[in-house]
Amino acid sequence: EMKDNTIIIVLGASGDLAKKKTFPALFALFRQGFLPTDVKICGYARTKMDAANFHSRAVSYIKNPGEDPAVTASIQKFKDILTYVDGSYDDGAAFVVLNTHLEEIESKYTSKDNEADGIEKNRLFYFALPPSVFVPVAKNLKENCYVKGAGVNRVIVEKPFGKDLDSARQLLSSLKEYWTEDETFRIDHYLGKEMVKNLLVLRFANVAFSSGWDKNHISNVQITFKEPFGTEGRGGYFDSFGIIRDVLQNHLLQVLSILTMERPVSFSAEDIRDEKVKVLRSIPPITQEDTLLGQYVGANGKPGYLEDDTVPRGSVCPTFAATTLWIHNPRWEGVPFILKAGKALNEAKVEVRVQFKDVTQGIFKDITRNELVIRIQPSEAVYLKVNTKTPGLQTRAMATEMDLTYNRRFSNAKIPEAYETLILDALLGDHSNFVRHDELDVAWKIFTPILHWIDGQSGTAPKPVPYAYGSRGPPELNAFVERFGFQRT
Ligand code: BG6
Questions:
Q1: Secondary structure letter of residue 142 according to DSSP
Q2: 106 lines ligand 1 (CB under 6 A)
Q3: What are the φ/ψ torsions at residue 435 (nearest 5 degrees)?
Q4: Where is the Glucose-6-phosphate dehydrogenase C-terminal domain (predicted)?
Q5: Chain-centre distance of CA 155, in angstroms?
């Protein structure tokens, strides 16, 4: 349920996340009328600026505003709901100042007939912050900016949640001292993507898919993330995390869990997440033998990873990883799930590729395996590779596609940004697309041993194989996927 009398407080309002994702998403929601009536958005950061300065800064974050007068008018109105407070992250007194500012806004709320226990005051705190200040900010907010009485307090936080199982547990339990599970919305922005949300519908609203969704029909599954650019100045952050923590342990594992979980009892947040946790618990930690690590080197005029000034010299941090997961349950026993992610590759693409088994040998020649491809981005699509009769007098089979490419089939639909749908869900109090604490715990269990090996905690750190900037990945990749039964169709 959407609550009126809400203030959204963006902490870290002048940082990168706020600029690239939070403010554009807030504006998009505002413009489409999805924010609560009379909402106010309060920025908080260390930078000192006046209101006018903050307005123009926040507005400059809006992507491609264009010349459309309706958009220009919305931007004007958006400015009116923005306020700003500056202060540090570790000083309680600064948060008292923030609280006074919020109370001033709230003092103008008027009561409604049904508010017997007082006027509701709702605050949604959005952490667009580096992890080093998660705990002090959580503490300071709880101690100084938490409204008691009618209304709800919520926090939105986003990875990195630690670096391995122990550090993640420690961080989560520190945060839990101040904010309950119910008040906490942990973002994995892949859960807000249209095609990831579509997985539930595809799987559970179609007998055609749900019946063959198992080891008897499926040979192997690949979940692939490709980006055509390198770390480009973000090497400092990236190098201490690596591609597995950056993309596989969270985004790709989330996709895997939705793709493989059993049908939830209902679509409630707890029922869905119970099933996700259950399937994740059936996955043993990934092994060195089932993992291929790569690091990009300069090519085609583009610099290699080690030539990025923000990357430590001689780093063996992987910028590419392929790793195979196994699910030990009756549905999936023996089916390899290959997760692959890399930076500085030949294209931008995220997709799921479900490769079915061969048809029993017999009457047809030249037929290929069925493959269901769910392209998460760009150009959202679902297509099924099928064999069909070549049209005409001869009876010959040929490979073709049943194609549901969104911009053709739904040409007028606007596909929302992940952050738009997630902020909206948090405002509605719906946890379905947020990461529960036990989900995070089991995700770290799967990846921690391999990460410790990669970090050199159990001896010498492995050296990733080189691949050229702009290539399809390490040359070893083809043999790797073939080892797990993948056939190029
Ligand atoms: C982030 C990673 O979580 O996801 C980035 O830290 C990555 O390295 C990004 O580029 C990818 O998100 P999207 O939405 O562009 O696919």
A1: H
A2: no
A3: -90, 120
A4: 200-485
A5: 17
Strand order in the sheet with 40-45: 82-86, 40-45, 6-11, 122-127, 153-158, 184-187
- Whole-number Cα distances in Å, 107 to 44, 77, 99, 110: 20, 21, 12, 8
pLDDT in tens, 366-422: 789 999 999 999 999 999 999 999 999 988 889 999 999 999 999 988 999 999 999
Q: Give the number of other Cβ atoms within 10 Å of residue 88's Cβ.
A: 15
In angstroms, how far is CA 256 from the centroid of its own chain?
Answer: 13
Give the torsion sign (CA, 24, 30, 32, 34): positive
- DSSP-derived letter for residue 345 is B
From CA 274, how far away is CA 58, in angstroms rounded? Answer: 38
User: How many A from CA of 188 to the centre of ligand 1?
Assistant: 10
Distance 14 CA to ligand 1 centre (A): 19
Which ligand 1 atom is the nearest neighbour of the CA of 350?
16
Q: Pick from 22, 227, 232, 417 the residue to mutate for probing ligand 1's pocket: most ligand atoms within 8 Å of its CB.
A: 227
Q: How far is the CA of 92 from the centre of ligand 1 (A)?
A: 33
Residue type, 17: L
* Residues 359/367, Cβ–Cβ less than 8 Å: yes
DSSP secondary structure, 377-414, as one string:
ESS-EEEEEEEEEPSSSS--EEEEEEEEEHHHHTTTPP
With H, G, I as helix, E, B as strand and everything else as coil, classify residue 47.
Answer: coil
210 in Cβ contact with 372 (< 8 Å):
no
304 CA distance to ligand 1 middle (Å): 20
Sign of CA dihedral 241, 244, 246, 250: negative
Nearest CA to ligand 1 atom 13: 190
Cβ-defined contacts of 174-179 (< 8 Å, 24+): 174/135, 174/138, 175/134, 175/135, 175/138, 176/437, 177/139, 178/138, 178/139, 178/141, 178/142, 178/143, 179/138, 179/142, 179/155
The tokens for 271 are: 């029922």
- Alpha carbon nearest to ligand 1 atom 6, residue: 246
What was the ipTM of the complex prediction?
A: 0.97
Cα of 434 vs its chain's centroid, Å = 9
Asked whether 425 lines ligand 1 (CB < 6 A), one says: no
Give the model confidence (pLDDT) of 318-349 as tens digits: 999 999 999 999 999 999 999 999 999 999 99
pTM across the whole model: 0.96
For ligand 1, atom 2, the nearest C-alpha belongs to 246
Choose one of 251, 252, 345 to mutate for the ligand 1 pocket test, by most ligand atoms within 8 angstroms of C-beta: 251
Indicate if ligand 1 lies below 6 Å from the C-beta of 246.
yes
Residue 317's nearest CA partner among 462, 468, 467 is 462
